[in-house]
Amino acid sequence: MTRSFGFTLLELMIALAISAILAIVAVPGYQHIIEQANLNNARLHLLALQSAQESFYLKFERYAEAHELPVPHSKHYIFAITAVDKNYYQLSARSRKPGGRCAQLTLTQKLQKQPEECW
């Protein structure tokens, strides 16, 4: 009797089923980590923009308009400088992906952060 080497079709199907179950469990967790990383990146860009606004204020005794500072670009968030006058500004980051509890982040010159649970 000769002995054959290799896997049976049943063994391959079981291995494939186990791999599929592991992928189904892992993907949502991975997506959550990616979303958190994008949110952290947006917060970092807003804080850097806030620092640039304060530096501009020290030089010119007013806050910069949107065209006077380099506004960051991201494939996940749209950044803007809004509501600017001599003593006030508001920075915002809006997610390109609609929905979610942290789809819009704002930061003012008084370090008011909205929504608070996203900071």
From TrEMBL:
Positions of transmembrane segments: 12-30
An annotated GO cellular component: type II protein secretion system complex
Gene3D superfamilies, sorted: Glycoprotein, Type 4 Pilin
An example Gene Ontology biological process: type IV pilus assembly
Signal peptide: none
Pfam families, per the entry: ComP_DUS, N_methyl
Key word NADP present: no
Name of the featured protein: Prepilin-type N-terminal cleavage/methylation domain-containing protein
Organism: Salinimonas marina
